[in-house]
Amino acid sequence: MFSRITGTGSYLPEKILTNQDLEKLVETSDEWIRSRTGITQRHIASENQSASDLALNASQKAMEAAGVTSKDIDLIIVATTTPDMVFPSTACILQDKLGVENCPAFDVQAVCSGFVYALATADMFVSSGKCRNALVVGSEIYSKILDWNDRTTCVLFGDGAGAVVLSQSEEPGILSSHLHASGSYRDVLSVPGNISGGAIQGNPYINMDGGTVFKFAVKVLEDVVHEAVEKNNMQTSDIDWLIPHQANIRIIRSTAQKLGIPLDKVVVTVDKHGNTSAASIPLALDLAVRDRRIHKDQLVMLEGVGGGFTWGAVLLRW
Ligand code: UT7
To answer: Is the CB of 281 under 6 A from ligand 1?
Structure first.
């Protein structure tokens, strides 16, 4: 028994915030943002939208593409760092909004690696025969945890959601997954605040040492691809599509170059979406599936890195 992605979907909030808009908020420039990150715009959720709302839109499209209804879904995993509330999980809220009855539903918190973690987890349920159709979602509203006066972080992130249906299959889809974490780096990229005694304690906004994240990301994004191809007795030249976490075009280019993968085999969305954390990989995957870049039997590598640090990859045959 194998697991295979049978449908993808995504959702981006209507409101677009351009670099020019940001020039009016903080001391920055379109030139600085584009040259340092590759980002030109990002989508921003409305005040009344929550992560489960974005997830609902993306999930409905993925389910439609997979040809399944709420009756067919028997597992829901949502990767998010910006849940609707402390509890219940965004996955439980999504389950109710979708009208899915009585299946396991839980969130995965692995920041920007969240979707890779969630997909690897769903694969274990589906390929072991415990579930038939898992809904796996990455949904984020980073605009809620950004300090809009901090130019070093507020220009980098955006909101959005991506989803896949992972179904039982007789042919291999997911070939292997590779997950890592190193909590000793937890202070490098964090939202350190928490709620206690009815009040926010500590800083509730993103706090980041960008340079350290950059260097770490380039290293582990290269290492984990080698780990995945070696496990499957393949080579990086066998990869048809690399879909990396979309944080910075310079990280993406540098990773591709080190791996010897030409840029035209890399799906890039960071220019239009910014960094949407756990949503970035399924958003990019959905885009490349819907514009027919990805074809049946092609080899696709998904990889992410984020706060924790966490990092990981999923190698799959489309
Ligand atoms: O999903 C994982 C999450 N995070 C990441 O992936 C982030 C990884 N890191 C990065 O993408 C890059 O390190 C950044 C884009 C955050 C920063 O790029 P950099 O080339 O490492 O720039 P820097 O931090 O070395 O800053 C260079 C200068 C500084 O000024 P001084 O000290 O040289 O005078 C910053 O104060 O640029 C300044 N700066 C800005 N200037 C205009 C920082 N942010 C801005 C800004 N606009 N928005």
So the answer is: no
pLDDT in tens, 174-219: 999 999 999 999 999 999 999 999 999 999 999 999 999 999 999 9
Indicate whether residue 106 lines ligand 1 (CB < 6 A): no
Q: Which residues contact residue 159 at a Cβ distance below 8 angstroms, ignoring those fewer than 6 apart?
A: 12, 13, 42, 43, 44, 45, 54, 140, 141, 142, 143, 276, 279
Count of positions (residues) in the chain: 318
* DSSP helix, strand, coil percent of the chain (3-state; round to 5): 40, 30, 35
Would the pTM count as exceeding 0.85?
A: yes
Structure-block tokens of residue 34: 């584009």
CB distance 65 to 4 below 8 Å? no
Sketch out the chain's domains with CATH numbers.
2-170 (3.40.47.10), 175-317 (3.40.47.10)
| Residue 93, SS3 per DSSP | helix
Is 131 marked active-site? no
CA 151 to centroid of ligand 1, rounded, Å? 9
